[in-house]
Amino acid sequence: MKRRKKDLIIVESPSKAKTISHYLGDSYEVKASMGHVKDLPANKMGVNIERDFEPEYVIIKGKEKVLKELKKAAKSANKVYLASDPDREGEAIAWHIANEIGVPDKTFRIVFHEITKRAIEEALKNPEGIDIRKVDSQQARRVLDRLVGYSLSPLLWRRIDKGLSAGRVQSVALKLICDREKEIEEFVPEEYWKIEALLGYENTNFVAELFKVKGEKIQRLSKDEAEDIFKRLNGQSFFLDKVEKKQKKVKPKPPFITSTLQQEAFKFFGFTSKKTMMIAQQLYEGIDIPGKGYTALITYMRTDSVRVADHALKSVRSFIKKRFGTSYLPSKPNEYKTSSSSQDAHEAIRPVNVDLTPDDLRGKIPSDHLKLYELIWRRFVASQMKPAVIDSTIFEIKSGDYTFKATGSVLKFEGYRKVYEDTKDKDVVLPEASEGTEFTVLEIKKTQHFTKPPPRYTEASLIKTLEEKGIGRPSTYATIVSTIIDRGYVVRDKKALIPTPLGRIVSEVLVRNFPKIMDVSFTASMEEDLDRIAKGEIQWRESIKNFYMSFSKELEKASENLMKLDNYSPLKCEKCGSPMVLRKSKYGKFLACSAYPKCRNVKSLNQVEGVKNGRKGKNKGYKKRA
DNA sequence: CAGTGAGCGAGCTTCCGCTTGACTT
Question: Which terminal Cβ of chain A has fewer Cβ within 10 Å, N or C?
């Protein structure tokens, strides 16, 4: 029998290739591109500004082999289906591959949003061409990032130090951290006082806090006010004036996406984003489980969508019914809304097989892997369970002109919290009392408090903020944090991210000279343009030209400004108040007081006083290129 | 680790986003 030529399907991830190959059988060959195969050259700008921003694409170092294999497979294939992810970057990957393999007559583009047999077969029935407008939106994104990054970084080399970097994403992340630090430094704590009464009725004691005086809500009480009220309350009676009972339903949170997984793994286990992603990758690729062989445990871990495949929804609902009973199962599936900025290329992060419980895996996979799997599993199961029900009671208690408030809350039905405990709130029980009841006064307390500055960013809260502003992508959140630490802009002190003097100088220089790019809303407005390009409303070169007209002017001005300023830094000497300036010694650059030799204060650029774990001089040299 | 530019000059550093190994230690 004559052997039929196979059809070739090209996806991005090798694990995905394996799964699809398993679904489709022998008539298809499935190969992976492992992400992008072509890009702008690393060692130069690679964008010809005079020729309408013509990009120069080269094959990415190390991808020659992949491309050669794809080319060979394409040549002998019956048809070629480009099945890279259904988003902007995926479209560009398909385009680059199509251009390289050079068999246009038998090349098609297919897209699918979930990796199921049916979705793939459906996609194969509807082959399309490459959406060049989507590709163009990627080109605009890529070229803009290159223009910004490769123009700003050299400015920093000239002005501050070699090897520094700046870019649309990392520099805004740095700015957030620096702004927060400034807020903390400038924060002046304000004193205020609280008055609380410990009251009793029958066998129950509870605490009520003063919140109104003569029917007016109080602001912060001063010490004198508090003492005055405290005196007046001495020996007075307390009556229950108003009772308000409410039932609160607390819904479960949606299943994980990359950013929320990183946040929760940090919160519960203290994992860095890098560690979380490394473990998640292994859970996705599959782990050798004794008795089962290699098993993929979770869906794709780089996603910004909370969408769940229908079959997974069915499984989890029958699991909940079987395990916890119908009282925990909503009558119809809980629905969640994916962020409007998502391109919805992948599902939410969930267990591949919900029937494989964390208990089944205990002792069979490494403990950190189990922890993360359990977190993902619990979050997913909980997301399809009923809300928790809380009975809340509010007492308004009067004593003359003074009104106190006490809030009780009792968990009536645990619902999803049976599986995912996202709160440690304990029950607060108020007595069963009717309006008019007099309470026993056990104690009246006045306590001193101070307003607190906002907390420093942690890795998790920074990523949360970046995601909310649409800055960065699931595949880059972990590396954004690594980059600003590796550059010496930021140090990690336990969980907090603290800017170094270097980081603050870089941030300040960039904000002063490039306020638009350093604004947190810059990426959002870029995305609007990219959307218009993808819709065919504007040309990508027009859009970039538009941006570059003002950017190049800013660049020129900044270049002049920076050359004028001599060894400028925005930091002040904490000993004498004079500006600190950049100096060079045989060990490298450092900061010195400009009042030298009267003031001999110095500090190193990339360390924060009192923080041990700054860069220890390792990795300072340049990495050798392959 | 401590510390206050200046011989000359070539060559290097860098972005964001997509994906895994192939390398050392």
Answer: N
Average the pLDDT over A394-419 and give the result. 96
Q: Measure the CA–CA gap between A63 and A241, rounded to whole angstroms.
A: 75
Residue A558: closest CA among A165, A173, A159, A145: A159
- Identify nearest nucleotide to residue A588 by CA to C1′ distance: B3
- Contacts of residue A472, Cβ cutoff 8 Å, sequence gap at least 6: A169, A173, A463, A466, A480
Instruction: Respond yes or no: is residue A81 known to be catalytic.
Output: no
Confidence label for A618 from pLDDT (cuts 50, 70 and 90): very low
**How far from A453 is each of A181, A182, A185, A435, A447, CA to CA, in Å?**
10, 11, 9, 40, 19
What architecture is the A570-624 domain classified under in CATH?
Answer: 2-Layer Sandwich (3.30)
Tell me the pLDDT tens digit for each residue of A335-355: 999 999 899 999 999 999 999
Q: What is the CATH number assigned to the segment(s) A258-383?
A: 1.10.290.10
- The model's pTM: 0.92
Determine the Cα–Cα distance for residues A581 and A567; give it in Å rounded to an integer: 5
Q: Does domain A7-130 have CATH number 2.60.120.10?
A: no
Is residue A243 within 8 A of residue A395, CB to CB? The reply is yes
- Domain ranges, ordered by start, for chain A: 7-130, 146-187+455-565, 191-251+387-450, 258-383, 570-624
Contacts with A162 (C-beta within 8 Å, 6 or more apart), sequence order: none
Interatomic CA distance for residues A248 and A251, integer angstroms: 10
Q: Which residues pair with A588 in a beta bridge?
A: A585
- Do A221 and A450 meet the contact criterion of CB atoms below 8 Å apart? no
In angstroms, the CA of A364 and the C1' of B20 are apart by: 25
DSSP state of A349: B
On strand B, nucleotides with any atom < 7 Å from a protein CB are 1-6, 12-21
Amino acid at A48: N
Q: Does the domain at residues A146-187+455-565 carry the CATH identifier 1.25.40.280? A: no
Q: Which of A300, A416, A457, A568 is catalytic?
A: A300
Q: Output the distance from A138 CA to B17 C1' rounded to whole Å.
A: 10
